[in-house]
Amino acid sequence: MSEPDFDPFLAFRVLFRNGVSFVVIGGYAASVLGSPVVTGDLDICYARDADNLERLAAALRELGARLRGPGVPDDLPFQLDARTLQLGNSFAFTTSGGRLDALATPSGTAGFRDLEAGAVTVTIDDMTVRVANLDDLIRMKVASDRTKDREHLEWLRALRQETSDPD
Length: 167
What we know:
This protein is α+β, with helices and mostly antiparallel strands and 167 residues long. The protein has one domain: Beta Polymerase, domain 2 (2-Layer Sandwich). 43% of the residues lie in helices and 20% in strands. The chain contains 7 helices and 7 strands; from the N terminus they run H-E-H-E-H-E-H-E-E-H-E-E-H-H. Strand 4 and strand 5 form a beta hairpin. Helix 1 crosses helix 3 and helix 6 runs antiparallel to helix 7. The protein starts with 7 loop residues before the first helix and ends with a helix.
């Protein structure tokens, strides 16, 4: 089964329409803040309160979310509801807008409130979106310590240096 084209604007519209509280993290957040690293998925950190979990589950169902990952068959039975989201911490989905990863507590953080406190507001396709700041993106990459994250760290640190230098 082929994967849908990456369309973060579709995902944002559905998340907003459903009133989901989230912060954009990962490679897409880095590119929004100026990183040249190209990403093909959308990563979000979501609030874990009961109402938001209901709204997130509804948005994911509207996006036709299916679990993805190594060894995950397309027809794997999966109950996409608030209880399932509450029981887990990290979900990788294929949606009608492409790949979307939803994390409750990204590595190196205390979750949504931690990231939302320092998030920056940006306009993406006429939508106001909260995006993790560079320091938080760096903190998450350092904590996850994956090979691809170590490579992205160089770009993020260079961008941090560039944006913190006085003109």
